[in-house]
Design brief:
Structural class: alpha/beta
Number of helices: 8
Number of strands: 5
Shape: globular
Mean pLDDT: 91
Strand order of the largest sheet: 3-2-1-4-5
CATH architecture: 2-Layer Sandwich
CATH superfamily: Ribonuclease H-like superfamily/Ribonuclease H
Largest sheet: 5 strands, mixed
Number of domains: 1
Strand content: 5-15%
Length: 216
Amino acid sequence: MKYYIDIETIPLPKEQRLHSKPTAETCKYGNTKDPKKREAILASAIEDWEAGTKSALGADTGRIALVCIAQDHGEIVPIADEDERTLLGRVWNMLDDVTVANFDSIIGFNSNHFDIPFLIRRSLVLGIKVPHVIMEDVFKYKPSILVDVMDTWRLGDRQLYISLEKLASVFGVETLETDVKGADFFKHWAEDKDACIEYCKADVEATRDIAKKMGL
C-alpha cells in the first residue's frame, strides 16, 4: 500500500505569530548602516509580516489549510477544515494503519523536508497524536516509509533543487496550468478554495506519476 501526499499552508492569525514580528533589534539589515535605510528595511519587513508573505512556510507562524492524499491508484482525497485539529485528526486517521504488515510508503515531493515535518510540528503544537511508526521513521538517517521524490532525484546532492513542474516536464508528466502558486497560495485560498483544491490534487497526481516512472 502506498499513500501519495501534498499539503498547503497559510499564515496563522497575527495574534498567534506575534513572536515573529520584526523589531529594530531582530530585523536583518545586512551591511546597511544608514539609519534612514534601516528604517525603510524594518518598515518593509513589518509590512511583509502583516501580510503574512512568508509566515505560511513555518510551523511556528503558519497552519495547514489543505491536505490531499491518494491511496495507491485511487482517487485523490482533499482534506480541509477551519479547525486545524480536526484536519490533522482526519489525516492521521487515514494513515493510522501504517504498520510493517500492510504498509509500503508515504510518497511526496520535498515531503521529508516540508510536508511531513510541518504535519508533525503542527500536531505537536495542537496535541494531536502522530502514528508512532511515522514518528520513528522521521528520525532515521534514511527513512524507510517516508519516500521523497526530490531526494531520489538529488541522489545525495543536497544543494540540488528542482521544482515539481520542471521535474514533471523531465519525465513527460503533465501538470495543471493554473494561477494558483505555492508562494501566494494563502491569497488564493481566501478567494477560491475550489481552484486551490484542484491545484493541490494536481500536485499529488504529478508526484504519483513521477514516482511510478522512477520505480518507487
